[in-house]
Design a protein that fits this description.
The protein is mostly helical. It has three domains: 146 residues, Orthogonal Bundle (Lysozyme); 50 residues, no CATH class; 52 residues, no CATH class. It contains 17 helices and no strands. The chain is globular, with a radius of gyration of 27 Å.
Length: 310
């Protein structure tokens, strides 16, 4: 029987050495929340959860979203849809004025209805919960009175994070070790949508670090890549098939120079690796070869076949 997963002070310090005490106290003092929400059920869930909250908080160093910007270029970079068409003259009043910027980017959406909501309900806590609407929904679940000050209470924001995690079915995606789906669910609101999550490299880095601390031995520590497209599959299998066909023909016509033995050994090793991949993925490779043969040999030959038949 394995020991129950937990987070020790030493483990947390190894994971995020610059973590602010507010986060450390809230997390270590409320591990029961992770337990009751199934996050401590296995290493995958814990590591994916830690990766997401570490990314969102910059390694547990960002308590609230910083809306103080110094350049118009940065504003356009962070909010391209809102500010791309704005001139510098239009954007300069938003610089170094967090309240004005908060209203400019968040007013009238995310449940924000009152003047000042954009700034008051800016991102805060473990998953940087944002907007009056989200705070209201979570407070209704927890029996709390909604208030922007709750985003500064990180025992509460940990509860918000757990609700968001479970509602987004992240435990299931973590069980599948699918970093992309977990990240999409947290960052875009849809694990199956087409919008790509921001900061995937950072989320991957934090997952790898978490796995080094809480991961299970003997299990894969790298989340799977996104599925290959049909074009990528054909390229992966079809190109080697074409190369092999051409190489075989040349070999028959002109035997290799013995001085090129090293090069041929290298080619043979590569061919062996391709063959091993094809055998282990025989359904994909078989379909790809069929597509390649039809496209490159059957279809081009159809006019000649038709000519002979007529």
């Amino acid at each position: 029987m394995t020991d129950r997963l937990t987070i020790s002070p030493d483990d947390l310090k190894r994971f995020a050495p610059k973590a602010k005490p507010e986060y450390v106290t809230a997390l270590l003092g409320n591990l029961y929340l992770l337990q009751t929400n199934g996050i401590l059920d296995n290493s995958y869930r814990l590591c994916h959860f830690m990766a997401q909250i570490a990314h969102e908080t910059g390694g547990f160093t960002i308590l609230r979203e910083d809306l103080s910007y110094r350049s118009t270029a940065r504003l356009r970079q962070v909010w391209p849809a809102r500010f791309r068409s704005k001139t510098d003259a239009e954007l300069k009043p938003l610089l170094r004025d967090p309240r004005k910027l908060g209203d400019a980017v968040y007013a009238g959406r995310m449940g924000n209805t009152q003047p000042g909501d954009g700034y008051d309900y800016r991102g805060g806590g473990f998953l940087q919960t944002t907007g009056r609407g989200a705070v209201k929904r979570y407070c209704e679940r927890l029996g709390l009175d909604p208030s922007p000050s709750l985003l500064d209470d990180h025992s509460v924001t940990l509860q918000f994070a757990c609700i968001e995690w479970v509602d987004a079915t992240c435990n299931q995606y973590a069980d599948e070790n699918d970093l992309t789906k977990v990240s999409k669910a947290i960052n875009t609101g849809s694990a199956t949508g087409s919008v790509k999550p921001v900061g995937m490299a950072s989320r991957q880095k934090w997952f790898a670090k978490a796995w080094g601390i809480w991961g299970e031995k003997g299990k894969p520590d790298t989340p799977p890549a996104e599925p290959m497209t049909t074009g990528q599959i054909v390229a992966k299998v079809g190109t080697p098939v074409a190369a092999a066909s051409t190489g075989a023909a040349r070999l028959i016509q002109s035997p290799p120079d013995l001085s090129q033995v090293a090069a041929w050994k290298s080619a043979a090793t590569q061919a062996q690796e391709i063959a091993q991949w094809a055998l282990s993925n025989w359904k994909i490779s078989g379909a790809a070869v069929a597509v390649y043969l039809i496209m490159c040999h059957v279809i081009p030959a159809l006019p000649k076949i038709k000519e002979r038949l007529t």
